[in-house]
Amino acid sequence: VTDTDVTWVTDLRNLVDVNDGESARDQHAADLSFHPPVRPQVVVYPESTSEVAAVLAYADRARIPVIPFGAGTSLEGHVIPISGGITLDMSRLNQIVAIRPQDLTATVQAGVTRLQLESAVGPQGLWFPVDPGADATLGGMAATNASGTTTIRYGGMRSHVLELEAVLPSGRIIRAGTHAIKTSAGYHIGGLLLGSEGTLGVMTELTLRLHPIPDHVAVARVPFPTIEAACFAAGTLIAAGIQLTRCELLDAATIEAVNSHTNAGLSRTPHLVLELSGTEAAVVSELDVVREFVRDDGATGFETVSDPRARTQMWASRHDALMALLALTPRSKAMTMDVAVPISELPAAIERAHCALDATELRGGIIGHVGDGNFHVIVVLDPADATSLAHAKSLNDRIVEDALARRGTCTGEHGIGSGKLQYLEREHPDLLPLYRGIKQLFDPNEIMNPGKVIRLGDAYAPGNVASA
Ligand SMILES: Cc1cc2nc3c(=O)[nH]c(=O)nc-3n(C[C@H](O)[C@H](O)[C@H](O)COP(=O)(O)OP(=O)(O)OC[C@H]3O[C@@H](n4cnc5c(N)ncnc54)[C@H](O)[C@@H]3O)c2cc1C
Fold first, then answer.
1. pLDDT tens track of the chain, all 468 residues?
2. Are the beta carbons of 78 and 197 closer than 8 angstroms?
3. To bridge 109 with a disulfide, which of 93, 282, 372, 442 should be the other Cys (CB 3.0-4.6 Å)?
């Protein structure tokens, strides 16, 4: 479909608010990653589940690709409309439907963001712990099975979505799951939609588990002489059964980038940032145990805070890491590798990744949710520089290969998008026919986010999109 060949835009305008202006299309053409931008023909802004259903039913009949869009913070080209089509922006489905303190649940529309939910439930002594760093939408987080810094204690999105409402490409509205904490009723259809990256349908409403805000929280920042020592210490704490709420690694290069981005003034060595929460007495006594363990594993310092503002400041170095690395090179984009391995394999996997990164001319650093065995080698580059891009891709190949050899995964949390198709195929070759069968069952006309998670079907190869 060419920019001018969009007769269907008129039809869509009868169903939903449509924007086909240059700036809306540009805003929905790219993410922070190195993947090249492609603009959708139009962006639509549904305000209800029935508007989503009307758009999907129309697009399915007309064989027009539809790309659900939350906050656009995903990192593997997930929201880039590689075959053009309609970007379905969920930002107006932003109502908090119900908060149930006695059940520890909330029901939200899928465009509600993580921080919006946090502000709404906080005054009731509750919080939603899944924290991918960015202020993503809960629908986008569900669609990527996001996790983050607190997964070690609370789990990721799959542990938090009890029930969901979704619209299938035919326009049919379904509900999967229940408000009960557990169920054994039938196939786990909700579980298929979670992590499906907009390729099976559009989630419009989610019922989520909440948790009480802990009484007392303490954060410790711990420098180590080497990255291997830091990883080894993380493994020791986990094997000892310490109830960490967060366990994050920043390598020396990332610390240096954070220092120059924010004047943090941290010592230029790898750091672990650890969080403990619970009753004050329990946290204080566990902190003592943690201090002893990390000292035995070679820590060269141990700084702790518990005041909320000081904690936020201490965490800023971790949350700012990606932006600090991007700031190293003007106009750069990120290639964010995202492997996870069994905890026992982590020190060796990170050591190998660290040496491999050092052996290149590439700029970047290593950060990780090391309590989950999950780490990111982040390379910042100019996507137009073919040599750097080729070197970064080859580095990514080697890091994924190593993770798979250690019985790990090519993506701990970011998902497949269009960037990791070949790695998913390498990780699960025996599952590919099942993946294709599931796609066929949910989305027989392949209109939903084509080219993500599994390869493009013939109907949606670039330049081959049918117009209505
Ligand atoms: C600084 C930074 C740090 C990050 N750290 C982490 C991290 O620690 N852990 C982590 O997991 N991720 C992390 N991410 C990645 C990102 O935040 C997550 O992938 C997030 O879950 C995406 O949510 P979103 O609302 O931005 O979705 P989008 O990026 O808009 O969409 C993501 C995918 O979901 C689909 N989608 C969106 N909404 C829906 C819906 N309602 N129904 C069906 N499909 C939908 C889209 O089509 C797309 O395929 C980070 C990103 C940044 C920029």
1. 555 456 899 999 999 999 999 999 999 999 988 999 999 999 999 999 999 999 999 999 999 999 999 999 999 999 999 999 999 999 999 999 999 999 999 999 999 999 999 999 999 999 999 999 899 999 999 999 999 999 999 999 999 999 999 999 999 999 999 999 999 999 999 999 999 999 999 999 999 999 999 999 999 999 999 999 999 999 999 999 999 999 999 999 999 999 999 888 999 999 999 999 999 999 999 999 999 999 999 999 999 999 999 999 999 888 889 999 999 888 899 999 999 999 999 999 999 999 999 999 999 999 999 999 999 999 999 999 999 999 999 999 999 999 999 999 999 999 999 999 999 999 999 999 999 999 999 999 999 999 999 997 655 444 444 332
2. yes
3. 93
Best residue among 73, 204, 250 to mutate for probing ligand 1's pocket (most ligand atoms within 8 Å of CB) is: 73
- b (16+ CB within 10 A) / e for 131-160: bbbbebbbbbbbbbbbbbbbbbbbebbbeb
State whether the beta carbon of 148 lies less than 6 angstroms from ligand 1.
yes
* Cα 146 to ligand 1 centre (Å): 7
C-beta 147 within 6 A of ligand 1 = yes
- State if residue 231 touches ligand 1 by the CB under 6 angstroms criterion: no
Q: Where are the alpha helices (DSSP H) in 113-212?
A: 114-121, 138-143, 151-154, 189-193
203 CB near ligand 1 (under 6 Å): yes
Strand partners, 304: 220
Query: Given the DSSP bridges, would you call strands 339-340 and 363-369 parallel, antiparallel or unpaired?
Result: unpaired
Backbone angles phi, psi at 78, to 5 degrees: -55, -40
Question: What spacing in Å lies between the alpha carbon of 144 and ligand 1's midpoint?
Answer: 6
Kindly write down the DSSP assignment for every residue of 152-180, as one continuous string: HHH--GGGTEEEEEEE-TTS-EEEEE-SS
Ligand 1 binding pocket mutation candidate from 115, 144, 439 (most atoms within 8 A of CB): 144
**Would you say the pTM of this structure is higher than 0.90?**
yes
Any atom of ligand 1 within 6 Å of the Cβ of 167: no
